[in-house]
Structures are given as structure tokens and as C-alpha cells.
Amino acid sequence: MPPAPGDREARRKDVSEAVWRVLADKGFGGLTLRAVAAAMGVSTGMLMHYFPTKRALITHALDLLEKNTAQRPRRAHPAPGLATVRAMLLDILPLTPDDTARNRIWVSSWDLSLADDDLSAAQAARYARLRSTIRPHLEAARDRGELADGAEPERLATAAVAFTHGLVVQALFDPARFPEDVQTTLLDGFLTSLTRPT
After folding, report:
1. 156 and 55 Cβ atoms separated by less than 8 Å
2. What is the location of CATH 1.10.10.60 in the chain?
């Protein structure tokens, strides 16, 4: 007998929490139906009522990761222009334990995404959305005269995302060399390179 809708929703919440625990502990490389079932203390067969294949589990995990990322605490946007761009980019960096865990999970998902056309397209769309959220603030910076002459907000949004995610990867692999203050200093240096000379 299938569970009642309310029971099913409660169980799905339990499953999502177990998926998150496995991701935080082992990344996508360790995300299996068996690992999630063990984290819940249930059988793999029970879990397969929710995720009949590993592909379904991975898709759910990526959705869960995106939702968790969207709902994380964020810095206030202090003023139009580069000040807001700085706040947005700081929110991406692994500056706290929670941000570090979230970034480790994202990076661990890349291998799966590169090997699957649909997941790869979804990841490309995520990056496009990120660039599109940064671009209006770079446009505001241009209009305020903060950017160097000839600055193109679209190109700068791409450069900002590429710089920030490159810094994320280095900080994850070598946290002793890239603590919070070093990451912040490097980001500020990057943003300064975009500005109009005074």
C-alpha cells in the first residue's frame, strides 16, 4: 500500500536530508542509493520508491544543492555598482565552513555533469544565470563611472565568474594558502583592476 500524500512528503524530506548529509560527507562521488539508505537507516528497496535509478537520485541532489545555494544567507547589497558586485562575489567564495562544504559539493558534481549532456546543459544554464545576475550591477558601475573606459559588462561578468570560481577551486585544494583574508584581498585586487584610473 503506497504511503499517504502527507507521509510521502515527510519521507521525501527525510530522504532529501539524508542526501544532503551524504553529499556533505562524501561528495557526488560517494552518492549512491546504498549510502543514502544507510544514512536513513532504511533498505535500498524502500529508497527506490523515490529514486528508481541513480540518475534520478543525482538529479534530485543537484536540485537540492541549487535550492540550498539559493537559500543561503547573503550579504546585503550596499550600493549600486562595484560594491554590490563585491558582495555577490564574496557570497560565492568558501569563506565559512558552510560555504566551503557547499562549494566542495558543487565541485564534486562537475565530473558527473561533464559526462552527461543533460546535466552539462543544466550546469551551463546555472552559469548563464549567475552571469546575468551580476551583469546589471556591472552596468550600474559603468554608468556611475567606476569602470575603466570601454568596459563591457557582459565580458566583465564572464571574467568575474571565471575569476571567482578559479579562486574557489584553489581555496578548496589549498586552504592554508588561501584563507579568508587572502581570498578577500585577491578578489579586491581583481575588482580594482576593473576600475577607472584615478
Report:
1. no
2. 5-62
List the CATH code of the domain at 72-193: 1.10.357.10
Written as nine digits, the cell of 116 is 552527461
CA-to-CA separations, 156 to 72, 80, 88, 183, 196, in angstroms, rounded: 25, 16, 14, 19, 14
Q: Helix (H, G, I), strand (E, B), or coil: what is residue 144?
A: coil
How far is C-alpha 115 from the chain's CA centre? 19
The CATH code belonging to domain 5-62 is 1.10.10.60
pTM, two decimals, is 0.82
Look up residue 9 and give its three cell numbers: 512528503
Helices (H) and strands (E) in the chain, counts: 9, 0
* Tens digit of each residue's pLDDT (9 = 90 or more) over 157-196: 999 999 999 999 999 999 999 999 999 999 999 999 999 7
Query: Under 8 Å CB-to-CB from 114, ≥6 apart: which residues?
Result: 120
Comparing CA positions, the residue from 136, 97, 95, 111 lying closest to residue 58 is 111
**Phi, psi torsion values for 195, nearest 5 degrees:** -85, 160
Is a pLDDT exceeding 70 seen at residue 198? no
The whole-angstrom separation of Cα 107 and Cα 61 is: 13
For residues 83-92, one letter each, b for 16 or more C-beta atoms within 10 angstroms of the residue's C-beta and e for the rest, the string is bbbbbbbbeb
